[in-house]
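Bug #77: duplicate submission created two jobs. Keeping one. Sequence:
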Amino acid sequence: MKEEVRKILDMLEKGQVNASQASELLDAMNAFSEGDHTAEKPKIRKKRSLRIKVNSADGKMVNVKVPAALVSAGINIGRYFGVHGGMGNQAVSDLNWEELADVVNQMLEDDETGEIVNIESERGDVVQIYLE
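Kept job's structure:
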């Protein structure tokens, strides 16, 4: 701590800061050393995944897991397998994929996890999408 004070006094002596600025620096340094750490620490984000599961009544199954950072790609993969994967799955076809993307992006922003979609059709097809 003494070295930091000496540096501030040297800056004052050399004209790099004025007396008011030196005082502010010393106050900030004292507040920090007394535990008033007002500087916000960077938020550490854990790696998250978007999981899309489709189980059709006839036994066909899709289980896709993509990094949440690739949420758009994950939603497009889910849409592709649900609609074009030969399953004829009406529950997946009826999903509003743009709205799903909005919900997932909001959950990522709010640092939330959990189920987003859980649909079971009359035929017994099940679609689950969640953030983990």
